[in-house]
Design brief:
about 250 residues; seven-stranded parallel beta sheet; about 45% helix; binds nicotinamide-adenine-dinucleotide
Length: about 250
């Protein structure tokens, strides 16, 4: 059995200025992968991710680009090619969740959530596969919310479900080009986004986790990163989305 060899590989991780994306970027860099870090606006955040990668002996560059737009994805993928001459791994991680009762979802809120959570996966993957001549791996960060919906996040839930089905669809079509497509569906993760949900509802995250999760704790971003690396490594993994951090739904 030959596991995926991370040597000389290049990865793009969207939304890696903080949270789960940052943890994935650092974890890939620890494997020796050269990483292109990205955020829409947060220059300080991306610089911090790049610095951490350099501190652990890795190599990274960054691009500020809005991946909800085709142009943003094009410039991000273009930077990988310009800097490192190749692209092997794309992690579609950037996402936003805006809390609103379904009846009050405005056109603007709808458009933003469709664009950041779903269109970005299509745009960045299409731009990336042009350069994956010797095959590659695409990892889509979905959510447990795409399987078990959260109240107040109807559009987010629906887009994450769409990402899970897109992961299967892309895997079916891209297999012939030796490109694998896998997904990760985390429960609540200890990040700005994850914690903001509890803040909004006035809940204590620790208490909630003890009551509602099988393991009694929130997922740490580093755990998601570990799963991402495992999924990339395993040559027969494609099309599937793996849940991490199950709540007590089953
Ligand atoms: P976060 O808000 O802490 O970080 C999100 C990152 O994405 C930031 O760096 C932000 O700048 C970037 N980003 C947002 N919009 C962007 C855009 N248009 N272009 C480029 N970058 C953009 O969130 P997180 O918790 O780290 O979430 C990362 C992913 O994991 C998201 O897709 C999210 O839906 C998913 N997820 C999170 C949780 C959780 O509980 N935190 C659970 C399941 C899934």
């Amino acid at each position: 059995m030959t596991l995926y060899d991370f040597k000389n590989r290049v990865a793009v991780v969207t939304g890696s200025g903080r949270g789960i994306g940052r943890a994935i970027a650092i974890r890939l860099a620890r494997e020796g992968v050269r990483v292109v870090v990205n955020a829409k606006k947060g220059l300080d955040e991306v610089l911090e991710t790049v610095n951490i990668i350099k501190e652990v002996g890795g190599e990274a560059t960054y691009v500020l680009a809005d991946v909800s737009k085709r142009e943003g994805c094009r410039s991000l993928i273009g930077k990988a090619i310009e800097s490192y001459g190749r692209l092997d791994i794309l992690v579609n991680n950037a996402g936003v969740g805006f809390y609103s009762a379904f009846e009050n979802v405005s056109d603007d809120l709808l458009d933003k959530q469709v664009a950041v959570n779903f269109k970005s996966v299509v745009y960045c993957s299409q731009e990336a596969i042009q350069y994956m001549k010797d095959g590659g791996v695409i990892v889509n960060i979905a959510s447990l919310a795409g399987i078990k919906p959260l109240p107040g996040l109807s559009i987010y839930n629906a887009m994450k479900a769409a990402v899970i089905q897109l992961t299967r669809s892309m895997a079916v079509e891209l297999a012939a080009r030796s490109i694998r497509v896998v997904g990760v569906a985390p429960g609540f993760v200890r990040t700005k986004m994850g914690l903001s949900y509890f803040k909004l509802l006035g809940l204590d995250p620790g208490e909630w986790a003890r009551k509602h999760t099988l393991t009694g704790s929130l997922v740490e971003p580093e755990e998601v990163a570990e799963l991402v690396v495992a999924l990339i490594k395993i040559p027969s993994m494609t099309g599937e989305t793996v849940v991490i951090g199950s709540d007590r739904w089953g």
